[in-house]
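# nightly structure sweep
# worker-07 picked up a monomer target from the shared queue
# config: single-sequence mode, recycle default, output format = structure tokens
# input follows
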Amino acid sequence: MAVTLAMYGTSMHDGMNGTLDWDSGNIYMGLLTAYTFSEDHATWTAVKAAGTEHSTANGYTVGGKTVGTTTHDYAAGVSTFGSPDVVWTATTALTAAYAIVFNTSTDVAICCINFGGDVTATGAAFTVDDTPDGYFSIDVSP
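# output follows
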């Protein structure tokens, strides 16, 4: 399965105008079992209305969990955003098809990670692994 990431249309705008604070500590990740992505889903509330958040069960709690300390790097014309891996301890079978990164203070949806299908952890860690290049990067070099 190919894992893909898509940005929500307003997340970059909100980041530039200060509505979305990348360093706030209020950046969370939620898991969905079903969802149809739209770049127009500007908020976590809109995303949940269009999809199905995993219920509170099997190691997951509705509302997701903090991603921890976010990372922001800039080098050679490329700006990246990431975090430590986000881990849920699956008590039985924890299955999700999407992970959504969002800000709990402003409800801004940042990005959607599509696992390419259902991923299940049974009695083990369900880990969303941030890559060395972060969740996403912006290349501003000409």
